[in-house]
């Protein structure tokens, strides 16, 4: 480690709140699938900032759109119109087949906004008695870090000593249709769920689960809210993960890759009247829908489609998954994934996944552990076959070591 790296780490340790435990690499530059540290070492980014950098680091067209817009107009607040919001609405609605759009900033804000909207819809349209609305969520969910959201997390790390929490949430197991059927009550307004549980370790539900969920929600007039903040925008090899299931959500949440990693941009999308219940003054955000965000998001969506990134995610994801399955290593318990949202779960005896991520760093790969024994793999969607093959060689040599 060079002295400059030690300085960065020491200063962070001294002055920063220790709410993260980063791998010991200090990055200073990125391009496409690659990032460089302060010593000039190059790494293949297999995290993509939790799928926010799906279009690749510093995509030139998104960069150009951002710089161009930053020269013209960055923020007006929603007290006035701006000339980027309407085109953003047109383009995101056309891309996703949505009828209404609510622009926000972080993913957690999109989730909070959806919760507020479905509750309001419940009271004003469904006829739920005021204050009685219930939302069903899944165990091991990850929807963000606000107080409202961590209150219905089942991860003790996430919630301990942050309460008291808001009531109105019922938790059921993920992938369990019978549990959903049993949990739905007259005051249920929504079922909020990830199509694939990302932070939980890339947990793919049993096939047939979501079509049944869709049926149950429709039959009971319950809004199906899909949190596609991580799975959306091509990550799983389709524009939206719901397309693998052949269903349509009532409310879809996007974030992360909506800006290609340049800026926090999120959105609540609805194909019915849920968002129509919000009236002037009832919800908002100073930065939500600002012209800079809209210009960046428009470019981020455009390159995703124009450059064939979604198809590439399907193709390279299949290649990556096959390659991981071909690795013969006693450390591996299971390999799973859809598109370029992949995970290797290690046997508990193999030791912490963190150790393997650190070993991968030494081989030029940045990946992130999740939940002790799982390595999550999510490179930018612009990865090539040669890069996948090279990454697989690094995974094979790392995973055949015993680092317990
Ligand atoms: C990352 C994530 C969020 C939260 O997004 P932030 O921008 O970090 O607030 C919500 N839901 C899912 C599924 C996510 O992966």
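Q: What amino acid sequence fits the structure above?
A:
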């Amino acid at each position: 480690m060079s002295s400059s790296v030690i300085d960065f780490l020491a200063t962070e340790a001294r002055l920063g709140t220790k709410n993260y435990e980063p791998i010991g690499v200090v990055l200073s530059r990125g391009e496409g699938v690659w990032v460089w540290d302060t010593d000039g070492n190059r790494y293949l980014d297999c995290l993509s900032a939790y799928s926010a950098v799906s279009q690749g680091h510093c995509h030139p067209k998104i960069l150009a759109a951002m710089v161009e817009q930053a020269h013209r107009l960055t923020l007006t607040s929603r007290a006035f119109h701006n000339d980027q919001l309407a085109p953003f609405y047109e383009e995101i609605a056309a891309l996703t087949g949505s009828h209404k759009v609510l622009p926000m900033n972080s993913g957690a804000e999109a989730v909070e906004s959806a919760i507020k909207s479905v509750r309001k819809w419940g009271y004003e349209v469904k006829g739920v008695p005021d204050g009685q609305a219930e939302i069903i969520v899944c165990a091991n969910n990850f929807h963000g870090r606000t107080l409202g959201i961590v209150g219905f997390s089942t991860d003790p790390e996430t919630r301990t000593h942050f309460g008291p929490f808001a009531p109105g949430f019922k938790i059921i197991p993920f992938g369990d249709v019978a549990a959903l059927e049993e949990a739905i009550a007259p005051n249920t307004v929504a079922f909020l769920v990830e199509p694939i549980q990302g932070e939980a370790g890339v947990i793919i539900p049993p096939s047939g689960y979501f079509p049944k969920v869709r049926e149950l929600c429709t039959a009971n007039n319950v809004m199906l809210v899909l949190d596609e903040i991580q799975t959306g925008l091509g990550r799983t090899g389709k524009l939206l993960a719901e397309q693998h299931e052949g269903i349509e959500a009532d409310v879809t949440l996007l974030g992360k890759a909506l800006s290609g990693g340049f800026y926090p941009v999120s959105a609540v999308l609805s194909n019915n009247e849920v968002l129509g219940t919000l009236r002037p003054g009832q919800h908002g955000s100073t930065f939500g829908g600002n012209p800079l965000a809209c210009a960046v998001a428009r470019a981020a969506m455009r390159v995703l489609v124009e450059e064939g990134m979604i198809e590439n995610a399907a193709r390279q994801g299949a290649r990556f998954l096959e390659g991981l399955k071909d690795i013969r290593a006693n450390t591996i318990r299971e390999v799973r994934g859809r598109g370029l949202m992949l995970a290797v779960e290690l046997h508990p005896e193999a030791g912490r996944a963190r150790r393997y991520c650190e070993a991968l760093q030494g081989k030029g790969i940045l990946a992130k552990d999740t939940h002790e024994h799982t390595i999550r793999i999510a490179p930018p969607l612009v990865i090539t076959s040669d890069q996948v093959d090279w990454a697989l060689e690094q995974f094979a040599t790392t995973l055949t070591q015993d680092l317990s």
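Q: And what stands out in the fold?
A: The pocket of pyridoxal-5'-phosphate is lined by residues 50, 106-108, 111, 142-144, 194, 198, 227, 229-230, 255-256 (CB under 6 Å).
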